[in-house]
Design a protein that fits this description.
mainly alpha
Length: about 100
């Protein structure tokens, strides 16, 4: 599907893969920053209670977890170009033998 989409837009498939991955990472960063701000607000709102510690712990998690999720989902959903498939298959053969 990505190949046909690249042909429809008259761009190289590598450029389209890069654009899709960049869009996934940028959206993960934006959502992570919004969640960080919300959790920071809740941490300040709950000062002096156990909620402060709970939200302070959660405050640092959204950005790295969403970036990892975006990378993982991008690699799982998008088919790799043939050059990368060839590289991964040769390394697998070298490990197994």
């Amino acid at each position: 599907m990505v190949q046909e989409l690249a042909q429809a837009f008259h761009i190289a498939p590598g450029v389209l893969y890069t654009g899709i991955m960049a869009a996934l990472l940028i959206s993960a960063l934006v959502v992570g920053l919004v969640l960080h701000r919300v959790l920071n607000h809740w941490t300040k709102k709950r000062q002096g209670t156990w909620g402060e510690y709970f939200f302070a712990l959660l405050e640092s998690l959204p950005i790295p977890l969403l970036v990892l999720a975006a990378l993982y989902s991008g690699l799982e959903m998008l088919p790799l170009p043939r050059t990368f498939e060839r590289i991964s298959s040769t390394t697998r053969r070298g490990v197994c033998s």
